[in-house]
């Protein structure tokens, strides 16, 4: 009888110890995960074709200084601080050179927002390249994160306004969004377009993600529109 009681007591003790140990492990894992999430910075991705001022903006956001730059072949990664909340956030400058611009795929899933830059003084020459790259970004934006389309070099007299650039992009994207059937493939009417309203010409307002247009002159340190966008995103 005593052996039975002792065995039962030992079993209860073992179960209790095991349960307490499991609870301790679960609490530790949850607290560590919460701590990591708390310390994890928001990621802001700057992208666009070559020569639009991405690296200059990257440095200006970091140091509030105007710096001459050259074409980047690798991404630049640094830390900035929100001008209002002083919260730190990570900023990634993606190279715009054709062969390496695909690096955006490495960061788009973790990005809090995207700044897509266009050179307003060259846009009529580069619109197809601009739109082609933006098409890739929109198609990959499965998390529907906000995108700022920043029309840079507004200090140059012949630079196009953000309204004109918006119209030019919509015209090009309206063609690019059409799916091309593979040999032997039949695409249903409902799946013909990758994004936007299938019954209307493409407009940015049709996208699920928030799209903003703004003008800037990084050369003149005129980037208030960028800070306003970042404040609205809610970086942490």
From TrEMBL:
Native organism: Entamoeba histolytica
UniProt-annotated binding residues for Mg(2+): 55
Keyword Transmembrane helix: yes
Alphabetical list of InterPro entries matching this protein: P-loop_NTPase (IPR027417), Small_GTPase_ARF (IPR024156), Small_GTPase_ARF/SAR (IPR006689), SRP_receptor_beta_su (IPR019009)
Protein name as it appears in the record: Signal recognition particle receptor subunit beta
Cell location: Endoplasmic reticulum membrane
Gene3D superfamilies attached to this UniProt entry: P-loop containing nucleotide triphosphate hydrolases (3.40.50.300)
Alphabetized UniProt keyword annotations: Endoplasmic reticulum, GTP-binding, Magnesium, Membrane, Metal-binding, Nucleotide-binding, Receptor, Transmembrane, Transmembrane helix
Pfam families in alphabetical order: SRPRB
Sample GO molecular function, one term: GTP binding
Positions of transmembrane segments: 12-31
Family according to the record: Belongs to the SRP receptor beta subunit family.
Residue positions binding GTP: 48-55, 96, 152-155
Major place of residence: endoplasmic reticulum
Topology versus the membrane: Single-pass membrane protein
GO biological process, one term: Golgi to plasma membrane protein transport
GO cellular-component term (any): endoplasmic reticulum membrane
